[in-house]
Amino acid sequence: MHLMSSELFTLTYGALVTQLCKDYENDEDVNKQLDKMGYNIGVRLVEDFLARSNVGRCHDFRETADVIAKVAFKMYLGITPSITNWSPAGDEFSLILENNPLVDFVELPDNHSSLIYSNLLCGVLRGALEMVQMAVDVRFLLDTLKGDGVTEIRMKFIRRIEDNLPVGEE
Amino acid sequence: MNKSEMADEALFLLLHNEMVSGLYRAAEQGDGENGRCITKLENMGFRVGQGLIERFTKDTARFKDELDIMKFICKDFWTTVFKKQIDNLRTNHQGIYVLQDNKFRLLTQMSAGKQYLEHAPKYLAFTCGLIRGALSNLGIKSIVTAEVSTMPACKFQVMIQKM
Questions:
Q1: Where does the chain cross the membrane (chain B) (predicted)?
Q2: Residue B32: which region, alpha, beta or left (left: phi > 0; alpha: psi -120 to 50)?
């Protein structure tokens, strides 16, 4: 019997989204809740990531993008998204996921057209980066669940967080 | 166990923790009743247990009997989910099984102090559902409860419901 723990994660995540869809009346509230939970996971996950990966300080956003795609995604979700669509200023890029492990075996029902199923990922990325002094905006542009060919996560650098105040739960 | 398995285990543990605290946070803000949180966690576990069994047992030979199924839960199933086996399985041979885990994975991150004991049920509900869901997909209807006396050890009691 062989099963990756990532399947356990995928199934558990699916059960969570199903539960939240029951608990909240509209999709926007579910999206918000998923983002908030992701954020709380991200601020804790970064510790585990730094301990496990031994990556040093990134010197620019391009390096950060590389670490996220090639090390972090690989380590936790077993995939390596490609990095594309850099903005001319180098402060925005897209992660393209050919296969999003979170949506294995998932089909969106018709009445949840505004649900951003994998929104937890945005929160995780935002929370984790905030812990390394980077404020970023993270959102989904394309989603295979909505019929797009790939899943695209857009990441925009907002500012460097100078003060080192501890971040609490949202 | 290789490094990557450990890594996505970290993600599962964080997700589980956040599910527990997220539900209770929402309940405190009036988005639901507190008592219902345990039920919700149990239900989520149930769904996951069913899903896991569907993927596990594709190539597993049919089980001999009820005890055989319980042994499978204690060994293969537990190892896949929690990276260790159940330490002790006892039964009265009348439909009650007690599964003891001396170092239950979802409790090991909590402090061992007595004052945390009251929070333990929150961290066991998902797993009670997980066992019930797994058994249900193997054709066994059950009621699963859990108790902790000394952290991080805990006992899951499975009462088989005869159909």
A1: none
A2: left
Say how many CB pairs under 8 Å bridge A and B. Answer: 96
Q: What token pair was written down for A84?
A: 């594309």
- From chain B, pick out residues whose CB is under 8 angstroms from the CB of A76: 7-8, 10-11
CA distances from A20 to A13, A45, A56, A89 (A): 11, 22, 37, 38
> What residues of B are in contact with residue A51 (Cβ under 8 Å)?
none
Tell me the residue type at B120.
Answer: A
- Chain A segment 141-160 residues within 8 A of B by beta carbon are none
Which residue blocks in chain B are alpha helix, DSSP H? Answer: 3-28, 34-56, 66-72, 78-82, 125-137
Question: What separation, in Å, do the N-terminal and C-terminal C-alpha atoms of chain A show?
Answer: 40
In angstroms, how far is CA B61 from the centroid of its own chain? 24
- Report helix, strand and coil shares of chain B as percent, to nearest 5: 55, 15, 30
Using an 8 Å Cβ cutoff, are B136 and B46 in contact?
A: yes
Q: What is the DSSP letter of A68?
A: I
Instruction: Flag whether pLDDT at A66 surpasses 90.
Output: yes
Delimit the domains of chain B by residue range: 1-158
ipTM of the predicted structure?
A: 0.90
The pLDDT of residue B113 is 64
Tokens of B63: 């089980």
* CATH superfamily of the domain spanning B1-158: Trafficking protein particle complex subunit 3 (3.30.1380.20)
CB spacing of A11 vs B5 below 8 angstroms: no
